[in-house]
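4.2 Preliminary Data

To establish feasibility before requesting continued support, the project team ran the inverse folding procedure on a target of 288 residues. The structure was first converted into the token representation described in Section 3, and no sequence information of any kind was made available to the design step. The complete token record follows.
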């Protein structure tokens, strides 16, 4: 029994050391998220990785990019309420892409991080529910139990191996067979599940909140490569339709680069050249 307890103690110590090392790797994932907000802009962009790919370039035309990979409407709603309370935001551009109301997007989220933006408004009961029942701190500090942390570590490892940043990758240089495989894989990942009515209700709540506080809300559909756009066809979950039903403007850039595979680093994310081009197009649309 004594030997068993000693071996168990060694295993526990080993796991704690590994967890501590991994925690150092993913801690910036939380800290950088909380430091990201900038209240000097009256126009804000909210999106997932499609908007995050633009980096700081929207600032050139007076737009603060508050996007983050994996963001869904729950995360965006929390940010909107925070901005309305704490800064003078006047206009919000929010993604209404074809996958935005999918169950995939409901499951892939930043809810454990975006809770930061609604903590000032929480009741004690709400705080307990979000932080204890949903194991917010367990997910953050027990890295070995957090699936998302695993993905982050893999992504960082890849970035160390790949010397060339993916934003410099050119989709047009891939073979047609490889393009087709990547398009099929992404489609199965995002468009083979049911619609998320939970996210749809949150999107309607966002629309109501912006209307109540006189914040102009504009939908934006980010560019897709021609092959991926054709693959999706009419498989959209209809976030843009919710906007149109509420007489809200939608900037539909889905096919604006249909003849420019060189503007993408994968099937649905812009590279550096694509980002520069979409910023110029976005500026013209906003001025009009």
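Position-by-position output of the design step:
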């Amino acid at each position: 029994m004594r030997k068993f307890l000693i071996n168990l103690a060694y295993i526990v110590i080993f796991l704690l050391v590994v967890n501590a090392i991994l925690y150092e790797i993913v801690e910036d994932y939380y800290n950088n998220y909380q430091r990201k907000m900038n209240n000097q802009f009256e126009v804000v962009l909210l999106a997932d990785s499609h908007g995050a790919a633009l980096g700081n370039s929207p600032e050139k035309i007076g737009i603060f990019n508050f996007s983050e990979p994996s963001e869904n409407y729950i995360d965006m709603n929390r940010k909107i309420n925070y901005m309305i309370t704490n800064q003078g935001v006047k206009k919000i551009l929010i993604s209404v892409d074809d996958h935005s109301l999918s169950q995939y997007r409901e499951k892939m989220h930043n809810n454990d991080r975006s809770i930061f933006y609604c903590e000032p408004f929480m009741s004690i009961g709400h705080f307990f529910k979000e932080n204890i029942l949903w194991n917010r701190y367990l997910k953050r500090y027990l890295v070995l139990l957090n699936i998302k942390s695993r993905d982050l570590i893999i992504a960082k490892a890849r970035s160390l191996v790949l010397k060339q940043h993916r934003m410099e990758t050119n989709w047009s240089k891939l073979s047609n067979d490889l393009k087709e495989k990547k398009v099929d894989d992404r489609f199965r990942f995002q468009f083979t599940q049911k619609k998320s009515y939970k996210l749809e209700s949150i999107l309607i709540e966002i629309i109501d909140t912006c209307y109540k506080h006189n914040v102009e809300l504009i939908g934006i559909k980010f560019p897709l490569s021609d092959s991926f756009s054709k693959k999706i066809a009419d498989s959209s979950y209809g976030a843009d339709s919710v906007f149109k039903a509420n007489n809200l403007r939608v900037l539909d850039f889905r096919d604006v680069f249909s003849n420019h595979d060189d503007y993408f680093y994968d099937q649905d994310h812009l590279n550096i050249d694509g980002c520069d081009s979409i910023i110029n197009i976005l500026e013209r649309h906003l001025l009009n």
